[in-house]
TrEMBL record:
Belongs to the GatB/GatE family. GatB subfamily. This is Aspartyl/glutamyl-tRNA(Asn/Gln) amidotransferase subunit B. The gene is gatB. It is an enzyme of class 6 (ligase). Residues 326-474 form the Asn/Gln amidotransferase domain.
Length: 480
């Protein structure tokens, strides 16, 4: 950036994974018919009083702990007053003055260089409704209104787009493995606003910042930041003042575009929420939440590499999908070798999830299915070829593994007498080849007989027992 230093701060709005909303008992859902999951509290009817969702507070505490934050022992809420169509009450319940968490940090790794990103605060609030712009009209879906959120605000210590996407990715991974949120950017449960300004190196003050709202993918975060840095640099070099404004990233033209100017800070008239008294959080309760915190991805990554001898790439393949990680660990509990499970997931399961374009949790395949397939292979009941045919069927159907095997006649022939009869017949038909080659090239003869045996049975034969029978049957061709 030549003589300019980039200053980036990031705000993330994260929908909490609760069954009901933050201050009402209306259900939380995605993709339901508009305005079907909303009640009088969400809509601000006169006399309707909010109550705090205990589970939402638990999830916020988990997030605070994972982000190394100081946790506020008293839960207090404020009103943020403004009128907008997506906010029917005319105010939002939030935590302006007393966030539940503050002074946190998250370590990132950019190309082998570690950096600690300081986090200013984490506070609980409620989401707004969703606006849908169509045919010159604006439609409001209040299903999202009142859904519990945590807002996580970093300090302006990020300096490049690479650091930004690593921070957002690491934050997303952390919250996903805590089971705090499903963090689906495409569904809006993990939203990202970026604040960017430029200043000359050595200058301690900050320039006017530009906010880029609602970035919905990691890829777009990088593109938006890189474009905005270039845009601001060109303006400064041409002696044009950077306006403090809000912009959005337009995917069609791959540029940030103006939404609105910010001449003055908006006066939201914050004051203490009168309908929710301060709540003292029991220290033992907070400690119990922290002590029962799920294992984070970083810890799992180290364990996979150290205990299972996975490469970093193999560990990341598992950990890139929360549901795949859960499936992997539930399969290990059944007693299968980790490397074998990894091989099934990397080859067979990955091709199926790519084919159907959904994660493993939406399939019919269960950890017990992989256990049975592996057991039948070790017992010589089926072959690896059979396993590759069985898994796609189990992925789509509710049939048991043994049903699939029997329906398709995929059991290997393992009866020694039956195999001996087949081998004897093959030897009779290849007697000349055996007599001429067995003493000098026994491997060739054994391979030929095994190949013919596989051909005659369509591959449905136990290879270990078959080789034992072949070696036994060929003994008479050895010299005394």
């Amino acid at each position: 950036m030549n003589n300019f230093e980039v200053i980036i701060g990031i705000e993330n709005h994260v929908e909490l994974k609760t069954k009901t909303k933050m201050f009402s008992d209306a259900p939380v859902s995605f993709g339901k018919s508009p305005n079907t999951n909303v009640n009088e509290i969400d809509l601000g009817y006169p006399g309707a009083l909010p109550s705090v969702n205990k589970k939402g507070v638990e999830l916020a505490i988990l997030a605070c702990n994972a982000l190394n934050m100081k946790i506020n022992g008293v839960l207090r809420f404020d009103r943020k007053s403004y009128f907008y169509p997506d906010l029917p009450k005319g105010f939002q319940i939030t935590q302006q003055y007393h966030p539940i968490g503050k002074e946190g940090s998250l370590e990132i790794d950019v190309n082998g260089n570690k950096k600690v990103i300081e986090i200013e605060r984490l506070h609980i609030e409620e989401d707004t409704a969703k606006q849908i712009h169509k045919n010159g009209k604006t439609y409001i879906d209040y299903n999202r209104c009142g859904v519990g959120l945590i807002e996580i605000v970093s300090k302006p210590v990020i300096r490049t787009s690479e650091e930004a996407i690593e921070y957002v990715s690491k934050l997303r991974e952390t919250l996903l493995f805590l089971n705090v949120s499903d963090v689906k950017m495409n569904e809006g449960s993990f939203r990202c606003d970026i604040n960017i300004s430029l200043r000359p190196f050595g200058f301690e003050g900050f320039g006017n910042k530009v906010e880029i709202k609602n970035l919905n993918s990691i890829n777009n975060i990088k593109k938006a930041i890189d474009f905005e840095i270039k845009r601001q640099k060109e303006l400064i070099l041409n002696n044009i003042l950077i306006d403090q404004e809000t912009r959005r990233f337009d995917e069609t033209i791959q540029e940030t575009v103006l939404m609105r100017k910010k001449s003055d800070a908006v006066d939201y008239k914050y004051f203490r929420e009168p309908n929710i008294y301060p709540i003292t959080l029991d220290t033992v309760w907070i400690e119990s939440i922290i002590n029962n915190s799920p294992e984070l991805a970083d810890s799992k990554r180290r364990r996979y590499i150290e205990e299972y001898n996975f490469s970093k790439e193999e560990a990341n393949f598992i950990l890139n999908d929360y549901y795949l990680t859960s499936f992997f660990e539930r399969t290990l509990v059944l007693g299968i070798n980790p490397k074998k499970v990894l091989n099934y997931l990397i080859t067979d399961v990955k091709s199926l999830t790519n084919k159907y374009n959904y994660s493993i949790e939406k399939s019919k395949l269960e950890p017990s299915d992989l256990f049975e397939i592996n057991k039948y292979m070790e017992e010589g009941i089926i072959s690896s070829k059979h396993a590759k045919n069985i898994i796609p069927i189990a992925f789509e159907s509710n049939k048991s593994i043994i049903e699939i095997i029997e329906d398709n006649n995929w059991k290997l022939i393992s009866d020694k007498e039956e195999i001996t009869s087949l081998v004897d017949n093959i030897i009779k038909n290849n007697i000349k080849l055996i007599e001429e080659n067995y003493l000098t090239r026994p491997e060739r003869v054994e391979k030929t007989l095994m190949g013919e045996l596989m051909k005659q049975t369509g591959g449905n034969i136990n290879p270990k027992i078959s080789m034992e029978v072949i070696n036994l049957s060929l003994k008479k061709f050895k010299k005394n």
